[in-house]
Amino acid sequence: MGPLEIVLLFVAKSINVAFEVTNEYKLSDLHFPSMYDQRNRNFWHKLTYPYFGQDIVWYVPPGREIPRWQGLVRAFSPLLWSLILLTSAFGTLTMWLLQKSERHSSAPSHRGILVVLSSALLTHLGASVAERNKGNVAVLFFMLCLYYCLIINTAYQSALFGLLVYPGHLPPIQTFKELEESGLIMERSYMAHGPPGTFWNEQMKCKGCEGGSIVCTRKVAVDRTHALSGISLLGKIHRGRYRDVRGNSKLVHLKEYVGNILYCLQINWYPAFLVPLFNTIIRRVLNSGLYSKWIDEIISRCIQVYREEYVQIEPATSFSLHQLQGEFYLFLIGFLLASIVFVFEFLFHFILLWFNVLR
């Protein structure tokens, strides 16, 4: 039993009448829902006060999951990457200048910049590097460099492990302008009427969704081909049915609201007597909090009915090759580059030795 049926039960007991449900609009004495329209003053005396209202929003698919290989780059923000590269460049240059100075390093001064770059890269990766520094300045710089690399390496690994488990999603559609440019099929889940040029007449230009709320929301959350305009209660009822394995909802609404629907009861039989009676009972129901309680019970019952369709949220598990695809690609690229360099170096020395023998 919904909130309206309970209100009708209260009214029936107060005036000792009985109500029957009919689908014939012309034969009905009470009609619900009847939308409140400020311009239609001819029917104001037949309408109860618009105590009931729902926001109209656009429901869109969520953003797609970020490719896992991008976790290698997304571990840090672009600004942080820029600062790290800038710091590494100055640090590498300082290491090269210290090695050139005989007062600050006992390493051979003829070591090139490539050797310094290799040492700097190994330091950032947490590998050991054989450096022989002399003097307080060189020793202090090398200690600070090791401490900096330790912090960056730890922060990167911590962020990377989090992205391996859950890489996140791209931002969803957030504005109506983005929705129009997205190419999604735009449909509505409600029926409204209004004169030409009015708000409701503009909303009716969208095609009505056929098949019920379950079919319509499935087009948005599962098929990802549609955008659906509906009341906010629709999302509360069906949002739990469409979740991924991480518990994130697949039914997302835009931040921009389309409008607001105000519901009334249209009373065609003795409105002068019944309209004040209905207003009094509905106001008492709302002020006592019963209406909110009944709506929450309806949502809970719907959740219980659709519980078997819910996606089970996966607990934390061990890493799979799918989660490690970014690191696998990095290993594959490094292996191929190493193989190419090895073959090139082998051929270079072989050709050089061949020309020396010919001479």
What does this structure look like?
This protein has 359 residues and is α/β, with parallel strands linked by helices. Helices cover 50% and strands 11% of the residues. The protein has 12 helices and 7 strands. It has helices at 3-15, 71-74, 78-100, 113-124, 136-165, 176-182, 199-203, 212-221, 232-238, 271-287, 290-305, 325-358; strands spanning 30-35, 52-60, 185-188, 207-208, 226-231, 252-253, 259-267. Strands 1, 2, 3, 4, 5, 6 and 7 form a 7-stranded mixed β-sheet that branches. Helix 7 links the parallel strand 3 and strand 4 (207-208). Helix 3 packs across helix 4 and helix 3 runs antiparallel to helix 5. The longest helix is centred in the last third of the chain and has 34 residues, at 325-358. The chain is elongated. The model has no long low-confidence stretch (mean pLDDT 79).
Task: Present the secondary structure layout.
Blueprint: H1 3-15, E1 30-35, E2 52-60, H2 71-74, H3 78-100, H4 113-124, H5 136-165, H6 176-182, E3 185-188, H7 199-203, E4 207-208, H8 212-221, E5 226-231, H9 232-238, E6 252-253, E7 259-267, H10 271-287, H11 290-305, H12 325-358
